[in-house]
Amino acid sequence: MFLDYILQLSFLIFEFDYEKNMKKNTKIIGNRQMMARKALFQEEIRNFDTGIFIDLGELAIFTGKVIKQFFQPPFEHKELIKQGFLIGNKSLSLVSVTGFIMGLVLTMQMNPILSNFGAQTLLPGVIAIAMVRELGPVITGLICAGKISSGIGAEIAAMTVTEQIDAMEVSGTRPLGFVVSTRVLASTITVPILVIFADAFSFLGAYLAINVFSDMSSTLFINNAFGMLSFKDLIPATVKTFFFGFFIGLIGCYKGYNANRGTESVGYAANSAVVASSLTIFVIDLIFVLITNIL
Amino acid sequence: MEKEEVIVVKHLYKAFLDKVILNGIDLKLHRGENLGIMGKSGIGKSVLAKCIVRLIEPDSGEITVLGKNVLACNDAELDEIRKKVGYLFQGGALYDSMSVRENLLFPIRRTQFIDKKHDSQELVERSLASVGLLDVIDKMPSELSGGMRKRVALARTLILRPEIILYDEPTTGLDAVTSGEISELIIKIREEYNTASIIITHDVKCAKIATDRIGIMKDGVFMAEGTYNELIHSDEKEIRDYFI
Fold first, then answer.
1. A163 to chain B: closest CA residue
2. A173 interaction partners in chain B (CB closer than 8 Å)
3. Per-residue pLDDT at A1
4. Minimal Cα–Cα distance from B81 to chain A, Å?
5. % chain A with pLDDT above 90
6. Which of A134, A239, A276, B130 has its CA 20 to 30 A from that of A10?
7. Which of A25, A43, A163 is facing B89, going by the closest CB pair?
């Protein structure tokens, strides 16, 4: 219904001359005419770069189906653990190194500024808040968009191209439950864990950087860092990482699942998954900042 | 008495944008029958097979499989029908990340298929034995040849005990000897499992060995129908040309 609405709306906006197109296929009658018209609308609408509306509608339907699969047996525990391990293992080192460097660089950048005000003791707290509230989740999210979403997109697109998804579909085995929901759930669980690692390594980087400029004990560093953090900082930051994980997995799966038949569609699915999930991370981040500010 | 019709397709239409692929095609498949479908590449043979199991949604028409209107089914009903209709894809479509054993166990586990006489492992072994490939049970699909992949895919199709099998170009890309073996296997499977089959093929030898009746598709409909012998002795050169 949503798709129909979008199609009708797009038709009105762009005054699509479907009569001209329909003349090409004079044999089509009745119901088939409607179907052909819908297909022609879709093609034309995509050509007008408004495919984003269709994509959003289809993504919403896809999301509904995936969420439904979370609660439908048989539950794929083994596949979930396998995917969780693969996703986490694939990104852990990169996320940790990035977090460490972020902590190091941020401290080196902030130290002279805070020194001017004689507020060097605030440095661990400032770094902690910056990393936990914003940088940790967003940087990790972007890394995961690049690694996880593209990986999932390419893998599922390859399965689509080689008809493995069709083979599951046609034997009544519901690929959405086995292939998609496990990956989405694994990503939803794994990304927050990766964010914790990124934060922890950024603290380590910050501690090392502080000790390059001055001398601070680890106890004092931890006290200063965690003394400035409150649940108001932790809870929204943690909640949004679950959303990051969910959408990173979902968009990767969606792009892969809807890949075309050619081999070039594998690359396209991976590429578009990265772009879409990176953008989604920023949108979710913005929404959470707005909500947090209101509360 | 005429045999039971397991698939009935009436006035099926399918167009992709402005290109009409199926133009009101009709088809009947009887229990225990092997129907071959021949025709030029891109004529819509695979589209027809995919419409039957609703991998592709037709624009209009009627499809009845085992007495049920496929186009009116909800997801659960469709799954039930699909379990009774096996589909052998052109490339085998084995799941790359799973071993041969896991490939065969997968549909059993996911569909919660129950066989009172045999447990899952026995079913896997029996299916593989029926295609003569019991020794590859723990190999990965990447370790198999093209012919082996097709036979394993056929074993996976057989594991849910389908009443109908749709073969999408089962011998394409295989050498003459392996093609012959696959064609013989199709006949063996019909005898062993009492299946009805639609065999989409370009392979004249396969059509000769494995089919009871052949339909030749052109312009979205069947232009000719008959047994192999009837068609190769047809008065029309165009029909005879398909068997050269």
1. B93
2. 106-107, 110-111
3. 42
4. 8
5. 53
6. A276
7. A163
SS3 of chain A: helix, strand, coil, percent, to 5 = 85, 0, 15
Q: pLDDT band at A11, cuts 50/70/90? A: very low
Higher pLDDT, B113 or A71: A71
Q: Is residue B108, in this structure, part of any structural domain at all?
A: no
Domain total for chain A?
2
Q: Which residues of A touch B73 (CB under 8 A)?
A: none
**Residue A55 to residue A39: CA distance in whole angstroms:** 15
In this structure, chain A runs to a length of 295
A234 vs A292: CA distance, rounded Å? 11
Residues of A in contact with B112 (CB under 8 A): 74
Cβ <8 Å between B17 and A40: yes
Q: Is the pLDDT of residue A44 over 50?
A: yes
d(CA A285, CA A248): 13
Looking at A23, A53, A69, the residue that finishes a domain is A69
ipTM: 0.89
Which residues from chain B sit within 8 angstroms of residue A162, using beta carbons?
Answer: 91, 93, 96
Whether residue A131 is found in the same domain as residue A234 = yes
Q: Model pTM?
A: 0.82
Q: Containing domain of residue A184, as a range?
A: 75-294
What is the residue type of A229? L
> Last residue of a domain, which of A48, A69, A90?
A69
Contact B86/A at CB under 8 A: yes
Task: Work out the average pLDDT over A269-274.
Answer: 93
